[in-house]
UniProtKB/TrEMBL annotation:
<feature type="binding site">
    <location>
        <position position="108"/>
    </location>
    <ligand>
        <name>NAD(+)</name>
    </ligand>
</feature>
<dbReference type="Pfam" id="PF00056">
    <property type="entry name" value="Ldh_1_N"/>
</dbReference>
<dbReference type="Pfam" id="PF02866">
    <property type="entry name" value="Ldh_1_C"/>
</dbReference>
<feature type="domain" description="Lactate/malate dehydrogenase C-terminal">
    <location>
        <begin position="160"/>
        <end position="326"/>
    </location>
</feature>
<keyword id="KW-0520">NAD</keyword>
<feature type="binding site">
    <location>
        <position position="101"/>
    </location>
    <ligand>
        <name>substrate</name>
    </ligand>
</feature>
<dbReference type="InterPro" id="IPR010945">
    <property type="entry name" value="Malate_DH_type2"/>
</dbReference>
<dbReference type="GO" id="GO:0030060">
    <property type="term" value="F:L-malate dehydrogenase (NAD+) activity"/>
</dbReference>
<dbReference type="InterPro" id="IPR001557">
    <property type="entry name" value="L-lactate/malate_DH"/>
</dbReference>
<feature type="binding site">
    <location>
        <begin position="132"/>
        <end position="134"/>
    </location>
    <ligand>
        <name>NAD(+)</name>
    </ligand>
</feature>
<feature type="binding site">
    <location>
        <position position="134"/>
    </location>
    <ligand>
        <name>substrate</name>
    </ligand>
</feature>
<feature type="active site" description="Proton acceptor">
    <location>
        <position position="190"/>
    </location>
</feature>
<dbReference type="InterPro" id="IPR015955">
    <property type="entry name" value="Lactate_DH/Glyco_Ohase_4_C"/>
</dbReference>
<dbReference type="InterPro" id="IPR022383">
    <property type="entry name" value="Lactate/malate_DH_C"/>
</dbReference>
<feature type="binding site">
    <location>
        <begin position="12"/>
        <end position="18"/>
    </location>
    <ligand>
        <name>NAD(+)</name>
    </ligand>
</feature>
<comment type="function">
    <text>Catalyzes the reversible oxidation of malate to oxaloacetate.</text>
</comment>
<feature type="domain" description="Lactate/malate dehydrogenase N-terminal">
    <location>
        <begin position="7"/>
        <end position="155"/>
    </location>
</feature>
Length: 329
């Protein structure tokens, strides 16, 4: 028997990430090739944005996706989020050259208060929320705090793009395909302070750290390259990354819903206190997922260099959180 459709909300649906994301969701890349989906798309109540959204929907229609059971356009989060099983909160202002993501806090934070409240009011009680809009960790924190009737664990932030960037850099360094690499992770904030960590990683069973054996490369090349990759894309394209961000959003939710079969990935999730990260902090952790739930990989040794890096990214997150205190009460 065919499965009942799942409702997926996407905000900022007429934006650049939306344009790379929606077609893949409708194609079954997010929830599986046997899972029909209904898209509930939100854009700002602005004539130009709504018209652009209509155009995108016309193109979605023109793909005749067999798994697409419906698509609706919205300008109000209370209708867009009604009964949704998955919410991808993409809609927010992106940064331009010379900005850091936290410079967007002022412009974007308010959006996530409103949308957190709307999810609280009308979404499925099991809704899985991924915040992509920057600064993603703190926006996810705001949305979570604005939705006290939903489990905090349902709110997550996107660190998967950093994770995928790190995978690619490591694969190139050791001359192996990304598919050979396991047990990589990224700790902390989606910002240049994030700490991409290959100390536990293996490539075809061999230690990646031993294969690389170059702490100077780690510190002076790898970490800055991954940490500043978003800015490098802006510099090259004149626009922030979109297709790779959409791809990471698909990877994040697909793994959360369908499971990683014991493999590690990275998700920004509310801390349960593991590794000394204060409870509730929206922090990138190594996780495995099973039956729609994520679990932090426990018992990893944190050496002095790693602890320093984790402290730096945590400090930044706590400062961002302090800056939005007035919004979350
Ligand atoms: N977490 C991550 O790894 C990444 C995050 N991003 C972030 O994703 C966000 C979106 O990026 P793009 O699609 O490139 O931007 P964009 O400007 O092309 O599209 C954003 C869309 O969101 C809409 N929007 C704004 N406020 C909204 C609201 N309250 N409700 C619904 N829609 C709203 C706008 O009208 C626009 O169409 C930015 O904040 C960007 O920084 C981008 C890349 C990676
Ligand atoms: O850098 C930006 O502003 C967009 C983003 O988050 C990324 O590409 O990682």
């Amino acid at each position: 028997m065919a499965k009942a459709p799942k409702r997926v909300a996407v905000t900022g649906a007429a934006g650049q990430i939306g344009y790379s994301l929606l077609f893949r969701i409708a194609n079954g890349d997010l929830l599986g090739k046997d899972q029909p989906v209904i898209l509930q798309l939100l854009e700002i109540p602005d004539e130009k944005a709504q018209k652009a959204l209509k155009g995108v929907i016309m193109e979605i229609d023109d793909c005749a996706f067999p798994l697409l059971a419906g698509v609706t356009a919205h300008s109000d989060s209370l209708t867009a989020f009604k009964d949704v099983d998955v919410a991808l909160l993409v809609g927010a202002r992106p940064r331009g050259p010379g900005m850091e993501r936290k410079d967007l806090l002022e412009a974007n934070a308010q959006i996530f208060t409103v949308q957190g409240k709307a999810l609280d009011a009308v979404a499925s009680r099991d809704v899985k929320v991924l915040v992509v809009g920057n600064p993603a960790n703190t926006n996810a924190y705001i949305a979570m705090k604005s939705a006290p009737n939903l489990p905090a664990k349902n709110f997550t932030a996107m660190l998967r793009l950093d994770h995928n960037r790190a995978l690619s850099q490591v694969a190139a360094k050791i001359g192996q395909p990304v598919s050979a690499i396991e047990k990589l992770c990224v700790w902390g904030n989606h910002s240049p302070t994030m700490y991409a960590d290959y100390r536990f990683a293996t490539a075809d069973g061999k230690s990646v750290k031993d294969l690389i054996n170059d702490q100077v490369w780690n510190k002076d090349t790898f970490l800055p390259t991954v940490g500043k990759r978003g800015a490098a894309i802006i510099e090259a394209r004149g626009l922030s990354s979109a297709a790779s961000a959409a791809n990471a959003a698909i990877d994040h939710v697909r793994d959360w819903v369908l499971g990683t079969n014991g493999k590690w990935t990275t998700m920004g999730i509310p801390s349960d206190g593991s590794y000394g990260i204060p409870e509730g902090t929206m922090f990138g952790f190594p996780v495995t997922t099973e039956n729609g739930e994520y679990k932090i990989v426990q018992g990893l040794e944190i050496d002095e260099f790693s602890q320093e890096r984790i402290n730096i990214t945590l400090k930044e997150l706590l400062e961002e959180r302090e800056g939005v205190k007035h919004l979350v009460g």
